[in-house]
Amino acid sequence: EVQLVESGGGLVQPGGSLRLSCAASGFTFDDYAMSWVRQPPGKGLVEWVSTISSNGGTTYYAESMKGRFTISRDNAKNTLYLQMNSLKSEDTAVYYCAQGPKGNYNSRGKGTLVTVSS
Questions:
Q1: pLDDT at 102
Q2: Which three-class secondary structure state does DSSP give residue 61?
Q3: Quick one: pLDDT at residue 105?
Q4: How far is residue 62's CA from residue 73's CA, in Å, rounded to a whole number?
Q5: How far apart are CA 12 and CA 72, in angstroms?
Q6: pLDDT at site 7
Q7: Residue 69: strand, helix, or coil
């Protein structure tokens, strides 16, 4: 059974930083590209944030995250990361890690809430 467990969310002031983690199990982690997606509270739209290739060599970002967010992975630890810097209020959302590349997700975790507010 695929399990994806996100952690690291919380309350942060505008301009601050957070690092999200996603612990993966139940599948061969380094066989899959992995992604982060997010959903603002009370909104139905799920927004793609970033994708990383299976070996970590290639990364992709939504335009509004470029230069602020960094996706990475540690295949030895079966863990996906998202370093978020220069956070803005509009980054407030539940962040999910997803198995698969952009738009082609097989599974998704339960998410971790990031709130950017002063």
A1: 93
A2: strand
A3: 92
A4: 18
A5: 21
A6: 98
A7: strand
CA angle 64, 24, 74 (to 5 degrees): 70
**% of the chain beyond a pLDDT of 70:** 100
| pLDDT band (50, 70, 90) for residue 95 | very high
| Residue tagged 């599974």 (tokens) | 107
CA–CA distance, 3 with 59 (Å, rounded to integer): 22
| Longest distance between any two alpha carbons in the chain, whole Å | 40
Query: Do the beta carbons of residue 6 and residue 110 sit within 8 Å?
Result: yes
Local confidence band at 60 (pLDDT 50, 70, 90 cut-offs): very high
Q: In this structure, what token pair is assigned to residue 45?
A: 């739209």
Q: Is there a contact between 81 and 22 (Cβ–Cβ < 8 Å)?
A: yes
Encoding tokens for residue 9?
Answer: 């969310």
Give CA–CA dist 118/112, Å, rounded.
19
CA distances to 35, 79, 88 from 103, in Å: 9, 20, 25
Convert 8-55 into a string of H (helix), E (strand) and C (coil): CCEEECCCCCEEEEEEEECCCHHHCCEEEEEECCCCCCCEEEEEECCC
